[in-house]
Amino acid sequence: MNFRNFFPDYCQKQDTLSYNLQPPVVFRFLLLFFFLFSIICLHGEIKPSSIPLAEGFDFPVAPPNADEFYKSRGFRQGGHLGEDWVSINGGSGNSLGKPVFSIGRGMVILARDVHVAWGNVIVIRHAYFEQGETHFIDSLYAHLDRIDVKEGDLVTKGQRVGSIGNNHGMYPAHLHFEIHKNLNIGVNHTGFGKTLLNYWTPTEFIVKRRSCWNKPGKAILPLSHFDIPTPWSHTPKKHHSKKRSKKH
Ligand SMILES: [Zn+2]
User: Can you give the pTM of this predicted structure?
Assistant: First the structure.
């Protein structure tokens, strides 16, 4: 192939100026640069979107079996969409600051104070293999006193992620804990059916999956997202008193 047939004017100009570096060499360097740059960028995007499969699930307080805790309030379709956990020894009064643990391997996809009825909340996305398929759930830990992880962190089963709180004094201290089948729920109950189509009964889910098929490898994180309350959507304090009686 004669390069001059394709770029006659350019080659002529280069010849006139007697450049040592010929155009094809420059183009090759540019192509190589963009190729390497695109690989680095793609790698950066793919890496955080995969998570290791969970090998099983434990309870979020006093793991593995929550022996030192009891449910002060259970899951009910159409009503309370999670479980409230408090310390057996001393109840809510002795629960403040007790550690909260990830129920399984997963990635922290939300870890912040979203105010309103939630307060400090963590959502962890988990993948597990069951009956020949990879399934996903979100576990949610609310009203926390402390958050010890950040969004994007990969966590293991039994890893401390925070501590039990009272949502800035709004409730008696307890852990409000949910498991979502529908990964679009996040911290928004409104707009999703309050049924077992969208939620798991937390204790039932964990008891049935203390040990999952431990397939080595990773699962690609689903690209589902949920809305996160913004600081300006913070419910005014005068409304808080109405919600005190409606404990999450
Ligand atoms: Zn609750």
Answer: 0.74
